[in-house]
Each structure stands twice: as structure tokens, then as C-alpha cells.
Amino acid sequence: MSGALSIGELGRATGVKPTTIRWYEAEGLLPAPARSEGGHRVYAQAHLHRLSFIRHARDLGFPMPAIRALLDLAAEPERDCTAAHAAATTQIAAIDDKLRQLTALRAELSRLAHACQGGTVAECRILETLAS
User: Fold this and answer.
1) Does the reported pTM lie above 0.85?
2) What is the pLDDT of residues 30-56, one digit of tens each?
């Protein structure tokens, strides 16, 4: 894709909704684009690359402050990448924690499901446990 992009084209190219693109602009993650004579946003290839970066980071689960820091790092190619490594290992630890939580949730739900032997709602162990 080359040249100027509308917000719709940018959204289709990156899989990001226009409302989210405008939010990223408002948050300062995506620079404000130029405007056409009619006042429409006109995005450049730099916006496409930056938004793709943001989208990929979001897909990997990075929180917004980490994405902001990674964008700042990416803007300085001569800097040491220790901070990027630290952000990645922090995200891995957060994923590991979430996996532990999900494993515990699954075990509890499995226990409840196995305790349910059918019957009436009045005798349902699942509903009883949820109500307590």
C-alpha cells in the first residue's frame, strides 16, 4: 500500500477499528494525521507502520504503558534494547500468572461440574455453590 490512507483504509490494513485509531491518537500513541481540505484525516505509511506495531503489541497482551515505552524505544534505534527485553519478560510473567489463575478456575469449575449429577434445580450443586 502506498500514499495517503483514509481512516477506513488504515483500519482495514491493520484490523483496527476507526474509533480505536482515534483513541490511539487522543492518547498520543499515534501522531495526529494531516487533514484534507475537507477536514478528513489523511494517514501516511508511518501511521500504518506504527499502528501495526501497536496492534501486534496489543495482540501479545502488552498493557498500554508498556506499548508506549516500546514505541519510545523503537524511535531510538541506537539505544540498548535491555528495556525491550525487560518488557517482554514482564509480559511473560503476567501471562504465566494468568495461566495459573485460569488453571485454578478450570479445576474449580471441573470440580463443580463433576459434583452435578443432574436432578432438580433445587438440588443443583453448581447453583448452590454459586449462590453461596
Assistant:
1) no
2) 999 999 999 999 999 999 999 999 999
**Euclidean distance between the first and final Cα of the chain, in Å?**
57
* Rounded-to-integer distance, Cα 104 and Cα 57, Å: 27
Q: Options 1.10.1660.10, 2.60.40.3500, 1.10.10.10, 3.40.50.1000; which CATH number does 7-79 get?
A: 1.10.1660.10
Grid cell digits, residue 101? 489463575
**Average pLDDT over the chain, rounded to an integer:** 93
Domain boundaries of the chain, sorted by first residue: 7-79
- Cβ atoms of 16 and 56 within 8 Å: the answer is no
Residue 110 burial class via C-beta count within 10 angstroms: exposed 0-12, middle 13-18, buried 19 and up: exposed
**3 state SS of 35:** strand
